[in-house]
UniProtKB/TrEMBL annotation:
This is Uncharacterized protein. Gene3D superfamilies: Tetratricopeptide repeat domain (1.25.40.10). InterPro entries: TPR-like_helical_dom_sf. It comes from the Eukaryota.
Amino acid sequence: MIIYSGKTDMAYFRQGVALQYLGRHADALAAFASGLAQDPKSLQLLVGMVEAAMKSPMRDSLEPTYQQLQKMKLDKSPFVVVSVVGQELLTAGHHGASVVVLEAALKIGTCSLKLRGSVFSALSSAYWSLGNTEKSTGYMQQDLDVAKTLGRVMLFSFISVQKGIEES
């Protein structure tokens, strides 16, 4: 990984562009994601990642999803963009790059338990495919914890609604 004494986001950006020109699209996306994990507010890295993804062999599968993100105004959310790209890398069989990208998404962070759970699940699958059962199981457990928490929230919401109906 290239690190300059100046702004690290520029180093990640340049690394991503260089890897893209070498035809190493998955590695380029991992470089952009790593930079966003360090500086989630970098519009240059986010735009670079989207452009690299759209120039990659995954364009046909990513483009409809990205268009949906634009309609929902989520195309500027670093967590959402990085996690979508990471899951697409996983689907395309780029397991090593998907791990880098998905772990970058977790470093960027989100308030949404459901989205975080989705990343945990994808990381579990990626590590399983790489033969790392220990990390796979760890992420699977985190996904299960999120699912339990979401289940409790859903149950509490249902009980609150039910109670409101009974009182009226």
